[in-house]
Each structure stands twice: as C-alpha cells, then as structure tokens.
Task: structure prediction
Amino acid sequence: MSSDTSSIESQIQLLVERLQTAKATLEQDQQSGAAWNEVANTFQSFADAAREESARTPIGESAAVSLIVSLEKLNKQQHAQVDIQAMRVFANICVDHGNESRLQK
Result:
C-alpha cells in the first residue's frame, strides 16, 4: 500500500467495497467458499497494509473495522484463515497506536 494518504484511502475504500460485496453474498449463503476466500484475502490485505504506520489510522477510521466484526460474527469460527487474518488486522492497527484499540470494543 502506498504511503500517500489519498492513495491509502482510495485503496482502503476498494477493500471495504470487496468486504461489503462478500458480506452481502454471505448473508444469503453462509456456505459460499468463494466469498469466505474473498473475506480472508481482503482481511490479509488490510493486515499487511496496517504494518505501515501511515495506514493504521485510515484503516481504523474506515468502515473496515465494523465490517470485520460483522463478518467474524457470520463466520462463527468456521473458517480459521478468516479468524487469523481478522486478528492480524486488529493487532496491526493497534501496534503502538492506542486510539484504535477502543474501536474493537
């Protein structure tokens, strides 16, 4: 993910849209393997991006956090890779960045 703020925000928006699309699919069919793969891959993209300090605040302030929480509720620990990547996102946005930890509550 580029360190330019506008680039980061546009990339975040694209990832959020991917999650919204996958969530809509999963609300109709929770067994959709393709949708769960998309969720895991998108979570991984967020987690990888959040390794960069410049991306943490924009990710934490985006719709990504609430989408991750709602998708985790749909997952019900059925897909381990989804759980792992979700925890990576939360861990990486919170590293040395205390404000985002309140968003997870």
